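I am still getting used to backbone structure tokens and would like to learn alongside you. Label the sequence line and the structure token line clearly, so we can match residues to local backbone shapes. Go ahead whenever you are ready, and we will take it from there:
>
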Amino acid sequence: MSLRVGIVGLGIMGGAFAANLVKNGFEVTGFDPVKAKVNALVKAGGKAGKSAADVARKSDMILTSLTSPAILDAVVTGKNGILAGAHKGLIVLETSTLGIDAKEAARAALATKGAILMDSPVSGAGKQAATGEITVMVSGAKKDFNKVKPALEAFSMLQYHVGPFGDGMKLKMLINMLISVHGAAFAEAITLARASGIDLDVFGEVLKKSAGNSRVIEYRGPLMLADEYADPKVKTADLTVMIKDNNLIEDYAKGNNAPVPVFQASMFSAYAALAQGYGSEDPGVVTRVYEQMANIPRKKRAPAKRKKK
């Protein structure tokens, strides 16, 4: 509990990390350019940081949860970035799904101040992060992992030290590769079930205890069966985020001369769904692409009627 924890990036994931850390008794200081997100942390019992540099000065470790390499660079090396407030021994855990080269650059910059960056992506969607049911894959020196493990246990279900720097992202990409494949396969199965007259409620129920089930089907499957992808209360991620991650995976495979034809086949429906304007909807929306190809699109639902006061 003596570790002072900083969070830079208080979005869906970073905000969940912060809330769970506060709940478990940690002193948490957070920063995000969106003031409402910082206010939410303060309301939960955390402290507001004036900048990433301010967070660094007040923390023993920092978790970063960011959306692009450019933002990571700005957060670390910008005018009021972490580097400006870094001190020797500060440990930064970079949890975003970003290219290893971008993380390497941030690591090198922080090393000039004696600070340490560990590649530490997480596996799990926003809902899992909110309940602490995520996995953290930390890569870097084992001694540094041991120092921060008590804090990791406060916001995650499983914490792994997976090897040297960069192995965390490799594992994250392997997991996301399978998520893409499982999602596309389930979309195909739903389409075949509908085409052959199988009731989707029956299909979903029988599938639960079968060998064909998977974690992807458990958390994304209900949306795909119900054809509900836009509601922020139920969606697990944005399609554009999955496509961004899949592009990283494709580059990873090419860089290692590894054939991934099944994974690549799973990507075409994602691009088709993006072209139809579904970028901000859950990745399960690829189901609509398969249903359109089978000429059995779902009927549009009428908007819910408002109750008269």
In short: The chain has a mean pLDDT of 94.
